[in-house]
Amino acid sequence: MKTTNYDKEDRNKHLEFIQNAINRMASNSFILKGWSVTLVTGIIALSLTTSTTRFIYLAFIPTLAFWGLDAYYLRQEKLFRELYDYVRAKEIKNIEPFSLNTLIVKDKVGSWLSICFSKCVVYLHLMILLILIVLSIWG
Predict the structure, then answer these.
(1) In the chain, what is the straight-line distance between the N-terminal and C-terminal CA atoms, in Å?
(2) Which of 47, 83, 84, 39 is closest to 63 using CA atoms?
């Protein structure tokens, strides 16, 4: 429901809310990358110290899970960036006040699966998977 009291100051506050959501999504993605590397490194270290390769196979599960979560947060970040541009460019009277609903811009962002294979996601997680494959074959 649109209100008539939504003005330029409200739009700036609205844009600030969206920017905060973008920052949270970017932060979550960064933290996930760190956890992924840390956890897999720990599992590899455990595998090497115990001379047991079965731990290497266990590392595939969190690697794939973190890959999917990283893509999820990157997609959410892109959706909020599109929403930011949408709110910034629209006339004030055509904006749903303080809405963080990204459904209105979902067609401008690729699917979760396409984001999984985007450059900024695939390089790190594919490298981790390749290392795990090499270690599981080598071990």
Answers:
(1) 61
(2) 39
pLDDT per residue as tens digits for the range 24-80: 999 999 999 999 999 999 999 999 898 888 889 999 999 999 999 999 999 999 999
Domain residue ranges of the chain, discontinuous segments joined by +: 8-138
Which tokens is 15 given?
Answer: 């844009």
Question: 3-class SS at 98?
Answer: coil
Cβ atoms of 107 and 22 closer than 8 Å:
no
**Cα separation, 35 vs 38, whole angstroms:** 5
Instruction: Give the other-Cβ count within 10 Å of 107's Cβ.
Output: 8
Rounded to two decimals, the pTM is 0.89
> In the chain, pLDDT over 70 holds for what percent of residues?
96
